């Protein structure tokens, strides 16, 4: 694994662990406790893969192999991506694995790949909550999510926080 990818994986891992610590997955699942999430993150594999060829080499940044708890990265993307774009893709793909392992929809079924659960997770850990999009569009969206997340705006709190946390905050302020 190259050094930049290693750094992004570490950052992404910290974000997931931190969100678990703060109870921010409560709207999605009650199975993601700090202990289970940290243990689970240790089992996620990140591999730079030479299997991207043709059109996929140009357009696919990474892929989540949900049943193998593994993320593949396109080496070409690693070459061209800026650090914040690389982190976005690491978080995005771990997000797919997380939803697959921890989250079920209201009827107890598997969630859609880029469905509402996966999008909410983007607001929690900070990736562009959107599947494929132009590079410019994605960069804008990453910055937008980061702004709301780091400033903990009202819109962000309403989207992400479990009601109990929200009420506790209101009482404290
Ligand atoms: Zn995706």
Describe the structure in your own words:
With 173 residues, the chain is mostly helical. It has one domain (3-172). 60% of the residues lie in helices and 7% in strands. It contains 9 helices and 3 strands; from the N terminus they run H-H-E-H-E-E-H-H-H-H-H-H. The protein has helices at residues 3-21, 34-42, 54-59, 75-80, 83-102, 116-125, 135-151, 154-160, 163-172; strands spanning 45-48, 62-65, 70-73. The chain has a 3-stranded mixed beta sheet. Helix 1 packs antiparallel against helix 2 and helix 6 (116-125) crosses helix 7 (135-151). The chain is globular, with a radius of gyration of 16 Å. It starts with a helix and ends with a helix. The relative contact order is 0.13. The structure holds zinc ion.
Order of helices and strands: HHEHEEHHHHHH
- Across the major sheet, the strand order is 1-3-2
Q: Supply the helix-strand structural class.
A: mainly alpha
Overall 3D form? globular
Helix content: 55-70%
Q: In the residues, how many domains can be counted?
A: 1
> How many angstroms separate the termini?
45 Å
């Amino acid at each position: 694994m190259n050094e930049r990818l290693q750094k992004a994986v570490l950052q992404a891992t910290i974000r997931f662990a931190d969100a678990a610590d703060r109870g921010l997955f409560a709207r999605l699942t009650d199975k993601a406790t700090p202990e289970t999430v940290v243990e689970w993150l240790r089992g996620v594999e990140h591999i730079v893969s030479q299997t991207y060829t043709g059109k996929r080499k140009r357009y696919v940044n990474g892929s989540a192999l949900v049943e193998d708890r593994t993320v593949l990265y396109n080496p070409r993307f690693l070459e061209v991506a800026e650090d914040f774009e690389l982190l976005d893709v690491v978080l995005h793909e771990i997000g797919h694995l997380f939803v697959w392992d921890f989250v079920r929809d209201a009827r107890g079924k598997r969630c859609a790949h880029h469905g509402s659960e996966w999008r909410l997770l983007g607001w929690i850990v900070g990736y562009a909550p959107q599947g494929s999009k132009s590079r410019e569009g994605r960069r804008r969206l990453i910055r937008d999510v980061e702004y709301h997340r780091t400033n903990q705006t009202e819109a962000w709190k309403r989207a992400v926080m479990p009601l109990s946390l929200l009420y506790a905050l209101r009482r404290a302020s």
